[in-house]
């Protein structure tokens, strides 16, 4: 119902040509808030609102209040463009989005074209979770900044870790049949061949996205191949069902994943009783022992009853504030210039850099396994009693990859 | 020599294992589909309306089962959830469809379409959009037998058993009881049955209720095995309609054959890695970036979910009435 | 005998009738020209463009549903394929610098829609009624799933994008700004409306109506219903392709959502809610549903539920749609008895509104408890503050629903009686329709 007031305010604002009040900085949050993706979108929205509250408690950005404007894109690229247009009409000059690289691509394209055709009214796009490498390579844009390690970077970090795990002999790849799954498998094959040519890739499976209800035949194939390790980018129900089928048939392998920590993942792992056999590559987990992060985590859980899945959102908002302070302005062009090349203390400790060439953020990454906790791991996930434990830390320098970006800069 | 023969026999073992497991899973999936398709076919034969919301009752069965099993346990839920869903179905027929009936068949179909939409939304509001934790009852949470090296869960055998019991019960009810006789008659000659003095309205309500209860039972038993989520209906719905059209609208045996066929085809397709690329060798690099390359490289496993629709189009071209179709619409 | 022929053969239209007929079209064109002056913001222009696209799409769908009685659940396939081909066409044209300006490009989309409708239509239209609906659903799912397999053509999830400003300029317009896109869409909308209206006036259009009403009799008269349905399908595909092309031009991207079930469902909603019995029905429905789907999602997170419930109400209580409801009053208006019924309408609408308000309140309160339990329970609805956790809200909601329902039943029966009286009087005065 709070949205009712926001919606009415929107309608009034959109109809007028008047300039909007200058004492707030609006950030448009364009992600699914209804329909299938809403559970993830709602979590993201609340995370950003929490972060905005944190900034406002310290006086906001350059004295201006930070306001998150929720915009439901129904996980649809066209709808995202409509919402972006609505947001621009209402005075929003920063949009953030993360769920779905297809949406991200459309949004990045739109923002670039809009800024090109409307000089002086530029809009910046902060990408916090869409990991298609193409957004900071062939389709890079000056107006797009990405805080999540893209899927190739994650694979680079993961394979660097796997270099030092001699027990991995036979590896099975299973992924969702779309651009992300494709990039995971091709990156995995290329990087493993270079770093651990002795690992035999005994299977390479692509299954339709979010359509399979019973993974038993896939698990049967994994078993038949004799693999001891499975690498998968699966998320959502594709992850949960895969694990369920594996548990049903008694498959005993180690799982290296991207999104095991996503909504429903921890529950699936616990149900399948895979104690510290499922690993995840991420830029942060709750049990790293960093006191500031622990305080933040406790406060977030107290308010919203979910754990922080987006440390990168924390980095994004804090860096945005820092860039605005550095540029002494909230004008998008000046903020963008201040942001690129910026070094920053990231949420979980350590330093990260927003690379100037492609606007990709590089930060320390963590490999963590999910299972029974000790006193060193105070936080559990989704009320399962189990929690994340760090298996390895990959420094930012070891995650760096070259880029093919040829960025067109405004003059 | 013995080494080679051992390798060959191991290779055969793997293939045999895959075939056996896939057959079991395929038959199971097919029977589940038939549980739903049978209700749909009977409703269509009697009322002339294809219940678009049928898969939604499957979903309601799963969610009711989940909630009731949370409160009182799985076994009472197995009984109560289908009854609840069936009662809801009967109410929908009595208070909804009957009003819409006078507006024509298109309006009835659209009503059920809107109903499917609304039910999905309501389920999302009450239970959320993420999967819910519907567990297999501890009594059944073991592996029934081990084929070669794969454990086959006992719960799946239980699903098979329940489905067979239900079918046997339905068959007996249809053929041996009085009400079953009336329903059989109303299946082909509803007006005549009305003329003979039977309360056709009440029979319709009963049939709709039983049909939806069947779908709900499928939901309750499938819920713990598959993911119980608010998009269940949207995932299974189109396949259900393909089953009904392929089997022939209005034919129960046809629906049975079609369900098994589609269940087996999908499950087997997933385990096959064959592609044109593997069979005939790679395309010349000149075609690398074209659509031909996509088709050449795609594996059977990747196109497994669209196999039912391919089957649909094939049937439509070669046998438009469906496999055992008896009625025109 | 002469009475029969005089009532069967329509008289030659008077000059005033002709003026009224063409006047409507001219007025529509003028309104399209003037609209941007009144509402000039970027968001408003985008909304108008989307409404225009939706009008073309819904009208094309009505060729199938309203005119020929074919309920299709997969019409978005032709919309989407038109969109995809146009995006590829724009890329090809700008790469090769061909002399084809943007306003001609939607025709390419139309021809694509026509091509695929001709390809898939013969098999699809073999059966009609329920079987056709299921077939259209299956074919649509097939195409939509194939979109993720044929990556080079469909671009996978990300889709394909293009830059519409790189084409040859027309009158120094490069079609970058939204206002130019609005005029492009408005022009095509007018063209498509004229063409589709003309189609309804042709013998083919009339035979489509005949196939809808009595296919057996059509066979007696010597036409093959299958062929008639097939032709209607092809025309519908053509105009759907144009709509898809304009959408692709507007968003500069085409992805598999264009072909999906949600897009097919939306056009079905628009057309049916507007009313399938009249030409203007889908136009009204398109405007209504587009505006609603854009703005409702800002007001409530369960807008899809309201949509579904609204659709069910329309199917149950007003199968003629909005225009059907309005046109029902035409004899009353002409006969001068409309005034008698209006007070009863007002009386009946009050308890109905109360019931709806109670329902909305109940739904929003339940949503608040199940979806956002941690939020502040003070919610604002219609300018009044409510506390979602207090029992007062529940009691008020329950009271509104029950009392509203009971009173509404009574008042609607009064309204029905008054309406019957008014209709009889109008009929006596000679106004039948």
Structural description of this entry:
The complex is a heterotrimer of chains A (411), B (329) and C (433). By secondary structure, chain A is an alpha/beta fold. Chain A has 2 domains: 2-149 and 292-362, Response regulator (Rossmann fold, 3-Layer(aba) Sandwich); 152-282 and 365-399, Response regulator (Rossmann fold), CATH 3.40.50. Helices cover 39% and strands 19% of the residues of chain A. In chain A, the strands form 3 sheets. In chain A, strands 7-6-8-9-10-14-15 form a 7-stranded mixed sheet, sandwiched between helices. In chain A, strands 2-1-3-4-5 form a 5-stranded parallel sheet, sandwiched between helices. A 3-stranded antiparallel sheet of chain A has the order 11-12-13, with no helix packed on it. In chain A, helix 5 (151-162) runs parallel beside helix 6 and helix 8 packs parallel to helix 9 (265-272). Chain A is globular. Mean pLDDT of chain A is 86; it is low at 5-9 and 11-21. By secondary structure, chain B is mainly alpha-helical. Chain B has one domain (24-318): ABC transporter involved in vitamin B12 uptake, BtuC (Orthogonal Bundle), CATH 1.10.3470. Chain B is 73% helix and 3% strand. Chain B has helices at residues 2-47, 54-71, 74-101, 105-127, 154-176, 178-188, 190-195, 200-225, 232-247, 252-271, 276-280, 291-297, 307-318, and strands at residues 143-147, 150-153. Chain B has a two-stranded antiparallel sheet. In chain B, helix 2 runs antiparallel to helix 3 (74-101), helix 9 packs across helix 10 and helix 9 (232-247) runs parallel beside helix 13. Chain B is globular, with a radius of gyration of 22 Å. The mean pLDDT of chain B is 82. Chain C has 433 residues and is mainly α. Chain C has 2 domains: 17-318, ABC transporter involved in vitamin B12 uptake, BtuC; 330-428, no CATH class. In chain C, the strands form 2 sheets. Chain C has a two-stranded antiparallel sheet with strand order 1-2. In chain C, strand 3 and strand 4 form a beta hairpin. In chain C, helix 9 (203-213) packs across helix 10 and helix 9 (203-213) packs across helix 11 (225-251). The longest helix of chain C has 38 residues, at 391-428. Chain C is globular. In chain C, 48% of the residues are buried. The mean pLDDT of chain C is 87. The chains are: A alpha/beta (411), B mainly alpha (329), C mainly alpha (433). Chains in contact: A-B, A-C, B-C. The interface between A and C is large, with 49 and 50 residues.
């Amino acid at each position: 119902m709070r949205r009712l007031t926001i919606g009415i305010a929107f309608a009034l604002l959109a109809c007028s040509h008047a300039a909007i009040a200058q004492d707030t900085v609006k950030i448009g949050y364009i992600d699914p808030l209804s329909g299938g993706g809403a559970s993830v979108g709602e979590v993201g929205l609340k995370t950003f609102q929490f972060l905005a509250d944190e900034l406002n408690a310290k006086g906001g950005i350059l004295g201006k209040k930070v306001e998150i404007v929720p915009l439901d894109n129904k996980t649809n690229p066209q709808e995202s463009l409509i919402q972006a247009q609505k947001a621009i009409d209402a005075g929003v000059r920063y949009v953030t989005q993360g769920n779905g690289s297809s949406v991200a691509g459309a949004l990045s394209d739109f923002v670039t074209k809009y800024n090109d055709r409307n000089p002086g009214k530029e809009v910046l796009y902060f990408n916090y979770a869409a990991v298609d490498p193409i957004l900071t390579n062939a389709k890079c844009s000056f107006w797009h900044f990405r805080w999540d390690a893209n899927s190739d970077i994650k694979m680079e970090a993961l394979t660097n870790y796997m270099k030092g795990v001699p027990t991995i002999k036979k590896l099975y790849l299973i992924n969702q049949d779309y651009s992300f799954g494709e990039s995971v498998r091709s990156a995995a094959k290329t990087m493993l061949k270079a770093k651990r040519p002795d690992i035999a890739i005994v299977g390479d499976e692509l299954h339709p996205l979010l359509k399979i209800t019973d993974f038993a035949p896939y698990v049967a194939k994994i078993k038949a191949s004799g693999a001891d390790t499975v690498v998968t980018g699966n998320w959502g129900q594709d992850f949960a069902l895969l694990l369920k089928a594996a548990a049903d048939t008694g498959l005993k392998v180690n799982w290296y994943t991207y999104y095991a920590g996503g909504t429903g993942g921890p529950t699936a792992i616990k149900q399948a009783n895979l104690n510290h056999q499922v690993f995840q590559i991420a830029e942060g987990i709750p049990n790293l022992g960093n006191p500031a992060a622990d305080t933040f985590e406790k406060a977030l859980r107290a308010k919203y009853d979910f754990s922080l899945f987006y440390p990168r959102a924390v980095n994004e908002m804090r860096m945005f504030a820092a860039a605005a302070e550095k540029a002494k302005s909230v004008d998008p062009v000046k903020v963008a210039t201040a942001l690129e090349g910026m070094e920053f203390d990231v949420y979980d400790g350590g330093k990260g850099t927003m690379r100037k060439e492609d606007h990709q953020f590089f930060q320390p990454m963590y490999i963590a396994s999910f299972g029974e906790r000790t006193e060193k791991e105070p936080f559990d996930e989704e009320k399962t009693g189990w929690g994340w434990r760090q298996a390895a830390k990959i420094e930012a320098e070891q995650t760096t990859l070259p880029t093919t970006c040829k960025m067109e800069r405004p003059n | 020599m013995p080494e080679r023969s051992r390798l060959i026999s191991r290779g055969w073992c793997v293939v045999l294992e895959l075939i056996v497991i896939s057959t079991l899973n395929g038959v199971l999936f097919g029977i589940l589909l038939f549980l739903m398709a049978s209700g749909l076919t009977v409703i269509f034969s009697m009322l002339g309306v294809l219940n678009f919301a049928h898969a939604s009752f499957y979903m309601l069965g799963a969610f009711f089962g989940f909630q009731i099993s949370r409160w009182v346990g799985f076994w009472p839920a197995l009984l109560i959830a289908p009854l609840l869903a069936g009662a809801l179905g009967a109410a929908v027929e009595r208070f909804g469809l009957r009003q819409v009936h006078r507006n024509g068949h298109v309006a009835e179909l659209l009503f059920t379409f809107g109903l499917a939409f609304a039910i999905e939304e309501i389920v999302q509001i009450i239970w959320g959009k993420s999967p819910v934790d519907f567990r297999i009852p501890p009594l059944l949470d073991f592996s029934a037998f081990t084929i070669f090296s794969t454990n086959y869960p006992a719960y799946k055998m239980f699903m098979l058993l329940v489905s067979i019991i239900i079918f046997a019960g339905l068959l007996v009810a249809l053929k041996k009881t009085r009400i079953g006789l009336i329903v059989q008659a109303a299946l082909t000659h509803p007006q005549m049955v009305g003329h003979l003095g039977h309360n056709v309205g009440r029979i319709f309500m009963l049939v709709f209720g039983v049909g939806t209860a069947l779908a709900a039972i499928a939901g309750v038993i499938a819920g713990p095995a598959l993911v119980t989520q608010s998009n269940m209906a949207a995932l299974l719905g189109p396949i259900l309609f393909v089953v009904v059209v392929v089997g022939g609208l209005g034919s129960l045996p046809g629906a049975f054959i079609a369900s098994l066929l589609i269940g087996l085809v999908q499950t087997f397709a997933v385990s096959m890695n064959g592609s044109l690329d593997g069979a005939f060798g790679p395309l010349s690099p000149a075609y690398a970036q074209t659509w031909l390359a996509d088709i050449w490289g795609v594996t059977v496993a990747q196109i497994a979910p669209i196999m039912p629709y391919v089957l649909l189009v094939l049937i439509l071209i070669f046998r438009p009435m469906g496999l055992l179709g008896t009625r025109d619409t | 005998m002469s009475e029969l022929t005089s009532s069967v053969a329509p008289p030659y239209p008077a000059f005033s009738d002709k003026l009224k007929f063409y006047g409507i079209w001219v007025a529509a064109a003028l309104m399209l020209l003037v609209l941007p002056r009144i509402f000039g913001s970027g968001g408003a222009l985008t909304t108008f463009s989307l409404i225009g696209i939706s009008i073309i799409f819904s009208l094309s769908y009505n060729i199938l549903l309203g005119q020929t009685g074919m309920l299709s659940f997969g019409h978005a396939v032709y919309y989407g394929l038109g969109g995809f081909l146009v995006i590829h066409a724009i890329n090809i044209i700008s790469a090769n610098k061909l002399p084809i300006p943007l306003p001609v490009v939607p025709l390419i989309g139309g021809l694509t829609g026509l091509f695929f409708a001709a390809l898939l239509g013969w098999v699809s239209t073999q059966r009609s009624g329920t079987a056709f609906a299921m077939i259209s659903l299956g074919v649509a799912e097939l195409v939509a799933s194939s979109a993720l397999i044929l990556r080079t053509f469909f671009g996978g999830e990300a889709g394909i994008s293009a830059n519409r400003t790189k084409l040859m300029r027309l009158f120094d317009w490069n079609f970058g700004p939204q206002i130019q896109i609005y005029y492009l869409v408005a022009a095509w909308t007018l063209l498509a409306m004229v063409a589709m209206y003309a189609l309804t006036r042709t013998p083919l259009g009339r035979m489509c109506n005949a196939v809808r009403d009595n296919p057996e009799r059509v066979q007696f008269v010597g036409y093959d219903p299958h062929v008639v349905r097939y032709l209607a399908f092809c025309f519908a595909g053509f105009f759907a392709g144009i709509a898809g092309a304009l959408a692709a031009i507007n968003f500069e991207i085409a992805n598999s959502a264009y072909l999906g079930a949600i897009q097919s469902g939306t056009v079905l909603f628009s057309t049916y809610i507007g009313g399938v019995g009249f030409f203007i029905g889908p136009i009204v429905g398109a405007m209504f549903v587009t505006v609603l789907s854009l703005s409702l999602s800002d007001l409530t997170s369960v807008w899809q539920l309201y949509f579904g419930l609204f659709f069910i109400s329309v199917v149950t209580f007003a199968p003629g749609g909005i225009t059907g409801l309005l046109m029902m009053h035409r004899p009353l208006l002409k006969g001068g008895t409309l005034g008698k019924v209006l007070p009863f309408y007002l009386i009946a609408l009050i308890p109905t509104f109360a019931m709806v308000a109670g329902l909305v309140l109940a739904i929003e309160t339940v949503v608040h408890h199940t979806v956002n339990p941690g939020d502040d329970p003070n919610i604002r609805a219609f300018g009044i503050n409510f506390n979602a956790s207090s029992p007062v809200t529940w009691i008020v909601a329950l009271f509104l629903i029950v009392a509203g329902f009971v009173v509404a039943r009574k008042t609607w029966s009064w309204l029905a009686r008054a309406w019957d009286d008014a209709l009889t009087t109008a009929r006596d005065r000679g106004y039948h329709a």
